[in-house]
Amino acid sequence: MKKIIFLLIMLGLTPFMLNAQGCMEGDSDEGVQVVGYLQADYDYYFFDKDKNGNTLYKPNSFYFMRARVGVLGSIPYDVSYYVMAEFSPVLQGGYPFLLDAFVTYAPFGKYAKFTLGQFKSPVGLELNTPCHDLHTIRRSTVVTNLATPFRDFQFMIHGTSDSLFGKKDLFAYKFSVLNGTGLNHWDDNKYKDIAARLVISPWEWLKVGGSFRTGKQDIKKTDQVQKTRTRYGADMSFQYKNFFVQGEYLFGKDEGKVKSGGGCGGKSTSVVPDSLIYKKDGFFIMAGYMTPWRLQPVIKYEVYNPHVQNESTYTFLYVERDYIQTTITFGLNFFLNDWTRIQVNYLYNAEETAKEEFPNDAIMFQVQAKF
Fold this sequence. Notes:
This protein is mainly beta. The chain has one domain: Porin. It is about 5% helix and about 55% strand. The chain is built from two helices and 20 strands. It has helices at about 1-10, 140-145, and strands spanning about 30-45, 60-75, 80-85, 95-105, 115-120, 150-160, 170-180, 195-205, 205-215, 230-240, 245-255, 260, 270, 275-290, 295-305, 315, 320, 325-335, 340-350, 360-370. Strand 19 (about 340-350) and strand 20 (about 360-370) form a beta hairpin.
């Protein structure tokens, strides 16, 4: 059944912009511009006991999901810069930290740009959608586990075509050489990762994307103990007037010692033995419609398979798991204006390979303001 669903995804559906590597883009080509956004959240967890009878507890709290402020601008000639900091007290030990910082040189205009600094990996559709443009409050489980590390120090060549074969922006590409050590770690790996993404748009309403990343790890200072990490991804997106459908599939293979988990430089949770080749995969499919009243209902179906025969675990909603996770998100987005949005999500979670389901659904509420 899952294979059929995935084939349906691949037959008809990825974002309509190949988003820039920073979280936000400016409105002017000259001067310094201050940008940022706040995401104030409240989560309520319907937790009871897990499949082993252990009591699950997560505080139902108000908090900042993200609180980001940065600057961007341009310098004559063909040079631009971007710096973004995170101030949310719930991330990275509660201290402010550098999120993105890079310089771009574009001597060939949109056809070829050269960017050096720390920013997002080019892997995947949902990862390369800015946080303030996500249709649901949280990213999909497969993305948070297989697109990691989200950010890295890297050198990227990227660009788009222009009126090729009579098609405007027929394709867009990104190719990066990365440290492979994640957010704000720059001296832990003598090897380097390579990553690439290509998005083809045969028609204005359809985009098809593919991603790849691989690298050998020799990490000394972070909590990861990987040897080789490889990722493949495919995604498509369809949009007609106010209706959209998106889907993405990611496959991962780790060879040697591996610690699972991740996110934006997040912590890992478990180690598998040296001799294993550890595979995992998953997908999501999502649809939404913008009504005339600035209300946008959204539904997302996602599956993550950690291939538990390898005795590996991952974290979902703060709980360690070792089984196939299926989540259906029912969402409603209300746009007060172009800068302010309210989101409400209900997450229905099903544990496919656990002995029985247990209460672990959640409702999430978020107010966002950007500037």
